[in-house]
Amino acid sequence: MRIRTATTALLATTLLTLTACSSSSVTTTGNLDIPGQQACNDFATGYKDAATHETRTALASKVEASAKDSTVDRIPDMSKALTRSANSNDEAWKIGADAFAQACLDAGWKAN
């Protein structure tokens, strides 16, 4: 139970950081390339509205389309995982979203 609570708290913090960019500018550091940046921006902008299977699937498809040309290894890989999780249950979606968000942050994506 403690692990689940800690995981939920980490997920919430990560996603709040990502969704903060929906109305602010975005900067990058590290090795995030333009397709990766677009995928992270797409995810951050659409995550909070992705509450249904249909909206999650649409968002994951958009993110994966942007991420496919990224040379940052984890961005395309985690976008594919996001797509798989969008077709599953709520818990899987949260895990997939957290993994993609972490890949963005690790590559240097930041919300201002």
Question: Your description of this structure?
Answer:
- This protein is mainly alpha-helical and 112 residues long.
- The protein has one domain.
- The chain is 68% helix and 5% strand.
- The chain contains five helices and two strands; from the N terminus they run H-E-H-H-H-H-E.
- Helix 1 packs across helix 5 (90-106), helix 2 runs antiparallel to helix 3 (53-67) and helix 3 packs antiparallel against helix 4 (74-86).
- The relative contact order is 0.21.
Our estimate of the beta-strand percent is 5-15%
Strand order of the largest sheet: 1-2
Query: How many distinct helices?
Result: 5
Tally of discrete structural domains: 1
- What coarse outline follows from CA principal-axis ratios? globular
SSE-based structural type: mainly alpha
Report how far the terminal alpha carbons are from each other.
33 Å
Map the helices and strands.
Elements: H1 2-19, E1 26-28, H2 34-46, H3 53-67, H4 74-86, H5 90-106, E2 109-111
Antiparallel strand pairs: 1-2
Short summary of the structure?
The protein is 68% helix and 5% strand.
Write a concise keyword list for the protein shown above.
5% strand; single chain; two-stranded antiparallel sheet; 68% helix; 112 residues
